[in-house]
Fold this sequence. Notes:
CATH topology of the largest domain: Rossmann fold
Structural class: mainly beta
Distance between the termini: 55 Å
Number of helices: 7
Radius of gyration: 28 Å
CATH superfamily of the largest domain: Class I glutamine amidotransferase (GATase) domain
CATH architecture of the largest domain: 3-Layer(aba) Sandwich
Shape: elongated
Strand content: 25-35%
Amino acid sequence: xxxxxxxSGLLLIFLHNFSSYALLEGFYKDVFQxxxxxxxxxxxxxxxxxxxxxxxxxxxxxxxxQSSVMIKNSNxxxxxxxxxxxxxxxxxxxxHGGYMGHSSDLGTAGRDIIRKxxxxxxxxxxxxxxxxxxxxxxxxxxxxxxxxxxxxxxSNTSVDRIINAxxxxxxxxxxxxxxxxxxxxxxxxxxVDTNNSVKGTVFxxxxxxxxxxxxxxxWAWKDNDTTGRALGHCGHPEGSSKTDQIRYISxxxxxxxxxxxxxxxxxxxxxxxxxxMDKTTKDSMPLFTKIGDMQYHHFLLNxxxxxxxxxxxxxxxGFDFHVFVAKDTFAFKQKALYSDSTAGNAKTLNIPTLxxxxxxxxxxxxxxxxxxxxxxxxxYSGKLEVLNGISYTIKAEWQGQGIFDLTEAAVRxxxxxxxxxxxxxxxxxxxxxxxxxxxxVQGKLCWEPKVNEIARHYSWKPDCAGMYxxxxxxxxxxxxVPLSVVK
Length: 487
């Protein structure tokens, strides 16, 4: 079924522009609050509401329920935190305070899920015990930050915090260097010695009173551009009704959201190639695994520019698929130049011309579960099949004008050169030829026709027999092919 190409006038609101808050795309929801076994005491909802982030809250001492949500259940082979291909289903995981035994309760399988969420691009942060669990202070912690909590500590008190010079919080929620966040509750949450910590650790705010003055209250860490960002609060600003503390904790979420991992490319699409995405989590083939609810899969068209482009997505019946195309950036809805986000499982985009650039395709499964009420965690209902993923195929076809990674072998496969009636006939097939020349082996230019992208057939009558070189410029690359002329 052919769908009309829609032009999107939406612009991405980057996260460093905090006058308004960007929509997070590619996740089921923005925040998962882990208040599971041995951690308790607060709710992040007021802080999420402040920046319009959606959230779900696990609040239980039941290890069985905790395991079914975070690790595995009959409807979801790898738990609610991850998509079928291992990508983060929530942009952020937040761990509350209490006792660090929570990470031990999750066991090896649970800790592996947490690490996979981070290393596959999700961000995480915690307060008090949550900060400890993200560190490497114990073998049973998540060990995402290679640093350890240290420095003096106090219990059951309130401590002023200060935004330090060079803090990444400067400019977020209006914070400036030297701003004070007064009376943040602190109860054995530790602190970090900025002079004795892992290289690469970023410090966002400092303690500003008592024995902890001069020690960091907030540390942050990011391994590389494909991982998320981790952040630890030593105290408990979350859930406070005080505006400055709401701004403080929500600034943390905005900062680590800015540090979400760069998405991966599933495949480079060659013209006429059909890719089938039908594998499951158990197959351990993430490049071909089904898509989860509200998730994006990203593809790259294997061309620099093209004409008469046709992109077809055929999803499993009964589910809504969206398709987006963007230039020089991942094809999320906010960045799309061409899109079809109407209801239905079958989508076709017809695009007359793609200008020179790097062209991305984003496929989104827009069907999700219904989250109701439940004891300890919302009960999911509706189309639960999305939790283990929905299959689809994607195919792109075009007339090439510039192959993105054209190889010499591909050139030779397309190019046909034959002698016919004392003429050299050159057929360039579908090659994106910008220039065609024939030289002698000594480097003298013999012939250069005006390139015709439509005909692609050329005829040259050489003056004499001998060895020649055919030179083609395709996209950004040039290729040479030897030619022997016999008369």
